[in-house]
Amino acid sequence: MTNKIPPATSPHAPSPPVASPLTHFDQSGQAHMVDVGAKQDTHRIAIAVGTIRMQAATLALISAGNTKKGDVLGIARIAAIMATKRTSDLIPLCHPLALTRVKVDFSIDTSQSSISCTVQAETVGKTGVEMEALTAVQVGLLTIYDMCKAADRGMVMTDVRVLEKHGGKSGDWSAA
């Protein structure tokens, strides 16, 4: 004889699983890595951007290359590229990708006392590179913060977002 527990009737009982548009949950509502095995390899591109605002004096030091720690933007560029290659180690359930290209650009805006970081990540694969581009932007900005925090602890990182993506089953997308 088996004892079966009757279904919960409490108003606090979990609801039955509902289909979700989110892809990292299975039919039971449990987190899982999405199976991309049946997808076709396609050329995929993602472009992400973010900004760090700082004191004008801090921006002047970076622009002139006069920080005690060296070439802030050069080191931040390398950190951003390295971050794209380690994204699957940092973001749970993110697929490891063989990147074919990573381009990191920094743009200085003296009127806003800010630096923008733009990253273009590319692969030929079964899943997109949005997470790699976003991770690279954030690590690039964090590296600027780390290298300049002794002079300016009030720096603010903001507006990190995907600007566009190309390729894959869902096609192209661009921020409005």
Automatic annotation (TrEMBL):
Residue positions of the active site: 146
Reaction catalysis annotation: (8S)-3',8-cyclo-7,8-dihydroguanosine 5'-triphosphate = cyclic pyranopterin phosphate + diphosphate
InterPro entries reported in the protein's UniProt record: MoaC, MoaC_bact/euk, MoaC_sf, MoCo_biosynth_MoaA/MoaC, Mopterin_CF_biosynth-C_dom
Pathway: Cofactor biosynthesis; molybdopterin biosynthesis
Any GO MF annotation of the entry: cyclic pyranopterin monophosphate synthase activity
Biased amino acid composition, Low complexity: 1-12
Keywords: Lyase, Molybdenum cofactor biosynthesis
Molybdopterin cofactor biosynthesis C (MoaC) domain ranges (all copies): 33-168
Residues holding substrate: 93-95, 131-132
UniProt GO BP: Mo-molybdopterin cofactor biosynthetic process
Gene3D superfamilies noted in UniProt: Molybdopterin cofactor biosynthesis C (MoaC) domain
Pfam families: MoaC
EC number in record: 4.6.1.17
Chain residue ranges for the region called Disordered: 1-24
Keyword Lyase found: yes
Family that this chain belongs to: Belongs to the MoaC family.
Subunit structure: Homohexamer; trimer of dimers.
Role description: Catalyzes the conversion of (8S)-3',8-cyclo-7,8-dihydroguanosine 5'-triphosphate to cyclic pyranopterin monophosphate (cPMP).
Protein name: Cyclic pyranopterin monophosphate synthase
Taxonomic path: Bacteria, Pseudomonadati, Pseudomonadota, Betaproteobacteria, Burkholderiales
